[in-house]
Amino acid sequence: MGELVSLLAGGSDGASVQVSLELSDQTPTTLRMKVADSDWQEFQASNWFSCLIEARLILEGEGFLLCCQGARPDVFPSGMLQQMNLGRFAYYLKSGALLSEDDVVDIFAPTDVSEVASVEDQRIAVFKFFKISM
User: Cβ distance 44 to 61 under 8 Å?
Assistant: First the structure.
């Protein structure tokens, strides 16, 4: 058994649901997710951030956004952070400022539902921040 993380996921109707995550740092990186009393679902990828995206897509399909730092539209890991610590940390992206260690957040740390976005909205925000054409 790996580290357990307990978070909320919020729905557009104001409903919320408890989400349990189990993190295993064995190769490949594995994230297991349990929503309320449902069965565990497993996601494997090269790093935590990639696993988190897959889990978030499942939740979005059920009408929920996961309330964690890694789901904020202004949080995204650099390539180096995705390789270090299995992608557990990402940068809080601030316009007009150089990124520093002070801007690094744990992607599994909780945050309010008002601060999170869908995977697609996060992608759009990151592309806009880095001025990448879509």
Answer: no
Query: How many Å is the maximal CA-CA distance in the chain?
Result: 44
pLDDT at position 134: 65
The neighbour count for residue 113, using CB atoms within 10 Å, is: 17
| Residue among 130, 33, 133, 36 at smallest CA distance from 77 | 130
Residue pLDDT, tens place only, 78-94:
888 888 888 999 999 98
Report the run of H or E that residue 90 belongs to, with start and end: strand 89-92
**Phi, psi values for residue 42, rounded to 5°:** -120, 140
Q: How far apart are CA 31 and CA 28, in angstroms?
A: 10
Residue 66: φ, ψ to 5°: -75, 130
